[in-house]
Amino acid sequence: MSAPTPTIRNPVLPGFNPDPSLLRVGDDYYIATSTFEWFPGVQIHHSRDLVNWRLLCRPLSRPSQLNMLGDPDSCGIWAPCLSHADGKFWLIYTDVKRYGRTSVGGASGASLRDFHNYLVTADRIDGDWSDPVYMNSSGFDPSLFHDDDGRKWFVNQLWDHRPASNRFAGIVLQEYSVKERKLIGTRVNIFPGTPLGLTEAPHLYKRNGWYYLITAEGGTGWGHAVTLCRSRTLTGPYELHPENPFLTARHRPDAPLQRAGHADLVETQDGQTWIAYLCGRPLRNRGRCTLGRETAIQPLVWGADGWPRTTDGQGIPQLNPPAPDLPSHPFPPSPARRDFDSTLLPGEFQWLRSPWPEELFSLTARPGHLRLYGRETIGSLFKQALVARRQQAHCYSAATVIEFEPEHFQQLAGLVCYYGAAKFHYLYISHDEIIGKHLRVMSAIPDGVVGDSFTAPIAIPTGRRIELRVEVDEERLHFGYRLEGAGAWSWIPQIFDASILSDEATMPGLPNFTGAFVGMACQDMAGTARPADFDWFEYRERAYATDPTTP
């Protein structure tokens, strides 16, 4: 019996990893993805076989490169573009400072948006990246095209705020001068888009004398699609792919990977073309994508007419495409438990917005612990002490142990399942003048009649370490707690709705583009920075739902 054909398990980057930019340099493959309001900015994953991937670095890590204080939820770093030319790496990205609300039906408010586009470079992808060069603010989803004559061209989506206009006004092109470190020449609109609308996410390529322009259209929800067009000249006009959109799940509700769009292309060493694109995996029972927008990849084939197509010719995302003929290169798995013994935060964790993490947490103030300093309210757009990691499976368990002695109700700390300021479930410890030290759950409900809710407080003893735990089974979320080493867990009686931690649970017009995180948080609204110490954090995925209260 012959060995089974190796396959890829999509999505290759599970959990919140949208807007992939796929690059090969020699035998190494890299995918850069958006991080939005989470700091440091931009995730870069590495692979040598397109099957196995590891988180390699986050290049935007200094205040001189990125400061997102005040950036709204789901804004910040959008759509990085990673390229390699002239012996170095180039990274283009957007920092979104304001999100206008009138591009979505039912929304209200001004359509003005602030998109600031920048360029950074590095000699090594995992080395120090330069301070940014400002490019423009005319729209978002920028990328840099290196033509074979040595000239460089900057493309981005054009935003038109004027009344009765198409907000997504096409793809504009302008030359970038390396010597002058700025855009030069005239801006040209090279592609107005198709009737699908919401044209964004441009990338340019050159092949056999043709310029190919790939874009995303149809919005980043269920109608998302990949559009491809080509031209003999850089500035167009561009003709559409004969089966446009050439990759989408917009008419296939049965497809396990939905929302396919925002794509990029790469060639393997033997010349095979692969496409990376974002996708979403909806919950079976609720149809919401709590994992946010993830990254999948699959091969393409080129026809005699000079157009690429999916290998099955159907133009839909594939859950398990055949793996490329490359030597297998697995990486060691990340440990399920992190003990915070290093002076560096484990790679899977991030925090929100601030380039000054020392104001929010410390790994040296109490060695072997992550100390969070009580700062602003949970959901603050400025100094929020919240350290978390992505939810990467529909079913998982997470736990931590906390030492925290609050003196009054304005001091809180605990375990949080978080999407944004209007979407979270927070199991926290606090103190009040009636019950004393206690724990309870606070929930922010984005689409409910009441915007927030609280469970009844449960008294707990002072001077004891408390273990906190969450079990998530698709749309069901259950919190537990116990005194450290006490044996059996006690469970909050309510079952919480995990599906609110999704792009789809929202009010009209709000930005909702990230995904669910789970982690640790601490607040002190009295301004005394009361700290909470966390000894370890554990995250384990499960393949199927279980009842945590069942032995």
UniProtKB/TrEMBL annotation:
Entry's family note: Belongs to the glycosyl hydrolase 43 family.
Keyword set includes Hydrolase: yes
Pfam families: GH43_C2, Glyco_hydro_43
Recorded GO MF terms: hydrolase activity, hydrolyzing O-glycosyl compounds
Active-site feature positions: 19 (proton acceptor), 200 (proton donor)
PANTHER family assigned: BETA-XYLOSIDASE, BETA-XYLOSIDASE-RELATED
SUPFAM superfamilies: Arabinanase/levansucrase/invertase (SSF75005), Concanavalin A-like lectins/glucanases (SSF49899)
Domain of life according to the entry: Bacteria
Residue span, Beta-xylosidase C-terminal Concanavalin A-like domain: 337-540
GO biological process: carbohydrate metabolic process
Keywords per UniProt: Glycosidase, Hydrolase
Name recorded for this polypeptide: Glycoside hydrolase family 43 protein
Residues marked Important for catalytic activity, responsible for pKa modulation of the active site Glu and correct orientation of both the proton donor and substrate (site): 141
Residue stretches in coiled coil: none
